[in-house]
């Protein structure tokens, strides 16, 4: 089974025609084709380093070699039968390595090409042209390791090629790269400042080859920048009151252009600080502030809370304004320059003192109290009312435009001031005061007395100055008054039998005092409107009268030279006894009130009736007549006789001075009652004298049949006998 190697079947050994290097890391080998060979094995040997490469046909290239190095090159042919022996070696040297380029654009019109030294190189060739193929080609040879191309177009992409050569002038590998020149400086710089937003918009003409633009804003204290791919950019936030130098530079992958000439930008001034507000005197506001950089002039705005706004334009640092009480003013100060208005600084508010009430009106003034009202005033949150009397102070605080000052002294002059108050400004101490005098003190009634003229004198005590006093007696029967500037006055015409409540009131221009404590006053009871005296019996009279107002009891007195008769009763009549007939009396009635007040009401003369006649005797005058005889009594000259019977009344009036009277034509057989009465001057006939009984059947002339009986007893006897026989007859 062992195969026998047939060397005669191996492919032929190829012969190298030439070996050369065009690239620093490879050698290209050319040879004649060997029949039957399917591939070839190229070998490059440098000392102990062997590099083999399998190729299909000629020419073939061995790669991975070192530049500028001499190699022994051999080749073998390969067929299915195997590989041939190595060909005779042939020397070949790799060309120089390409320089490693470092390119940059130090300016917008130049490109700097730099490289490191190349092994075995004695010179270098560098060329440059625009990458787009337009324009000329610059080529420079040098033994240095750097080269600068100038007068190039700014912002243009260039292609740079460089290679080294050896002592034989053989060029090595070339190195190619692209480099853009840096852009040119932007032109037509325009700066637009926005004072409200404190930002600046910077614009310029586009620059060839610029990828990006950078705007720089430099001040003494800050550095601001913005970058953009466009032809405008906004820088913010800028600082107020600052001068900026603004420049623009363009840049690309090669670098940046030179900055443009700086454009000066002055921003708006900062808002003025250290603002102070003073109101001196009231009604004048002074607004002051500190000076600011870059401020050409200032405007101060003052706006009141009702919407009204005023302003002041000045190059100084102070403005004066008129102000009103009770307003809140909003104050702001702006600085101006060519760039515009400064930013809004702090807005200050100043509240002026609240207005003072001007229409203080006392709606009630009493002895110890004063009620005052006023219209609400602007800016007042509270009202402080003070009433000052020497060293005494009475205060009241209220949010309402009214105040009641109490616990005041009567008849006292107070200095009353209403101060308006606000929490921000406090009290307005410039409010004017006014004087209000309290009502007078109440007088004190000391006594009430009566004089003989029915006048009631009222006396009081008071400490008021220049007061007028009014005394009022008030009762069910009306009101009575008297007035005086002194300490007493007299009440007249008070009705009798009345009870009054007496008070005194003091009055001044400030008002009326409270009434004094009332003092009761009772007038004497009223006398009776009429008095009547009636003789009841010869020794008894009845005195009657009408009831008078205020009288509770009455005392009736009957007075004569012979003595006095008295009666005390709560009725309106009284019986008085032990009256002597035919005597002149004086009748007096005294009315007495419940408290013991008396009124001597009436004095009336009264003559008691004449005495009843004595010794009345009856004498028969024929069958139908009778004579009545009596003895005249004291106090009367006229008499009247009356016979009362069942068949009539028979009256006889004797002539003046006579003491008998004849009655004729009287029916017989009847019993009569005979009464002889004195007749008063008024014609009134008294009815209380004793009566005599007379019978026509038993009456005889004289009394001879009954000598033991008196005339009067005889009449009584005959009357009793008559009544006896009359009774028997009825049975």
UniProtKB/TrEMBL annotation:
Domain of life: Eukaryota
Start and end residues of each Fibronectin type-III domain: 97-185, 271-355, 356-441
Protein name, UniProt field: Fibronectin type-III domain-containing protein
Source organism per UniProt: Muntiacus muntjak
Higher taxonomy: Eukaryota, Metazoa, Chordata, Craniata, Vertebrata
């Amino acid at each position: 089974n062992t195969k026998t190697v047939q060397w005669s079947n191996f492919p032929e050994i190829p012969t190298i025609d030439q070996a050369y290097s065009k690239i620093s890391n490879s050698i290209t080998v050319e040879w004649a084709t060997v029949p039957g060979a399917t591939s070839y094995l190229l070998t490059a040997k440098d000392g102990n380093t062997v590099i083999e490469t399998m190729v299909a046909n000629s020419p073939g290239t061995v790669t991975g070699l070192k530049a500028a190095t001499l190699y022994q090159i051999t080749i073998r042919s390969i067929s299915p039968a195997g590989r041939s022996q190595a060909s005779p070696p042939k020397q070949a040297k790799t060309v120089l390595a390409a320089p490693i380029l470092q390119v940059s654009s130090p300016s917008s019109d130049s490109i700097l090409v730099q490289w490191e030294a190349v092994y075995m190189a004695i010179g270098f060739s560098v060329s440059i042209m625009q990458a787009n193929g337009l324009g000329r080609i610059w080529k420079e040879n040098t033994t240095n390791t750097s080269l600068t191309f100038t007068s190039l177009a700014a912002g243009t992409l260039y292609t740079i090629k460089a290679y080294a050569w050896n002592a034989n002038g053989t060029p090595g590998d070339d190195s190619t790269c692209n480099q853009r020149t840096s852009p040119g400086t932007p032109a037509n710089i325009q700066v637009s400042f926005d004072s409200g937003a404190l930002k600046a918009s910077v614009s310029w003409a586009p620059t060839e080859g610029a990828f990006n633009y950078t705007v720089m804003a430099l001040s003494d204290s800050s550095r601001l920048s913005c970058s953009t791919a466009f032809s405008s950019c906004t820088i913010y936030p800028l600082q107020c009151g600052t001068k900026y130098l603004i420049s623009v530079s363009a840049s690309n992958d090669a670098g940046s252009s030179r900055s443009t000439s700086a454009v000066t930008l002055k921003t708006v001034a900062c808002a003025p600080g250290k603002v102070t507000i003073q109101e001196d005197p009231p009604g004048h506001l002074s607004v002051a502030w500190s000076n600011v950089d870059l401020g050409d002039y200032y405007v101060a705005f003052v706006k009141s809370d009702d919407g009204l706004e005023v302003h002041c334009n000045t190059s100084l640092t102070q403005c004066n304004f008129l102000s009103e009480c009770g307003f809140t003013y909003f104050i702001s100060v702006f600085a101006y320059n060519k760039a515009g208005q400064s930013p809004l600084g702090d807005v200050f508010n100043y509240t002026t003192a609240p207005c003072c009430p001007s229409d203080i009106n006392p709606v009630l003034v009493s002895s110890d109290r004063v009620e005052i009202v006023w219209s609400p005033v602007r800016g007042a949150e509270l009202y402080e009312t003070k009433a000052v009397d020497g060293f005494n102070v009475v205060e009241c605080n209220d949010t309402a435009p009214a105040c009641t000052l109490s616990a005041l002294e009567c008849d006292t002059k107070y200095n009353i001031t209403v101060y308006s108050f606000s929490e921000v400004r406090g009290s307005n101490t410039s409010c004017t005061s006014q004087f209000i005098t309290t009502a007078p003190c109440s007088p004190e009634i000391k006594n009430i007395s009566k004089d003989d003229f029915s006048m009631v004198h009222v006396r009081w005590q008071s400490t008021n100055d220049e007061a007028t006093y009014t005394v009022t007696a008030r009762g069910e029967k009306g009101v009575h008054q008297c007035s005086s500037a002194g300490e007493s006055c007299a009440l007249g015409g008070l009705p009798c039998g009345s009870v009054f409540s007496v008070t005194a009131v003091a009055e001044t221009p400030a008002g009326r005092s409270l009434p004094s404590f009332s003092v009761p006053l009772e007038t004497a009871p009223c006398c009776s409107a009429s008095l009547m005296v009636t003789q009841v019996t010869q020794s008894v009279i009845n005195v009657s009268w009408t009831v008078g107002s205020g009288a509770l009891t009455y005392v009736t007195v009957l007075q004569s030279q012979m003595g006095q008769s008295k009666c005390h009763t709560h009725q309106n009549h009284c019986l008085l006894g032990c009256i002597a007939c035919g005597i002149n009396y004086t009748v007096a009635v005294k009315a007495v009130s419940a408290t013991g007040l008396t009124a001597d009401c009436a004095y009336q003369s009264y003559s008691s009736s004449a005495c009843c006649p004595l010794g009345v005797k009856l004498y028969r005058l024929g069958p139908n007549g009778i004579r009545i005889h009596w003895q005249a009594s004291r106090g009367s000259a006229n008499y009247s006789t009356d016979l009362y019977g069942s068949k009539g009344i028979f009256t006889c009036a004797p002539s003046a001075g006579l003491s008998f009277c004849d009655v004729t034509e009287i029916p017989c057989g009847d019993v009569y009652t005979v009464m002889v009465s004195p007749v008063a001057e008024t014609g009134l006939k008294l009815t209380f004298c004793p009566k005599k009984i007379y019978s026509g059947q038993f009456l005889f002339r004289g009394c001879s049949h009954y000598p033991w009986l008196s005339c009067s007893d005889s009449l009584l006897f005959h009357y009793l006998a008559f009544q006896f026989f009359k009774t028997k007859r009825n049975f």
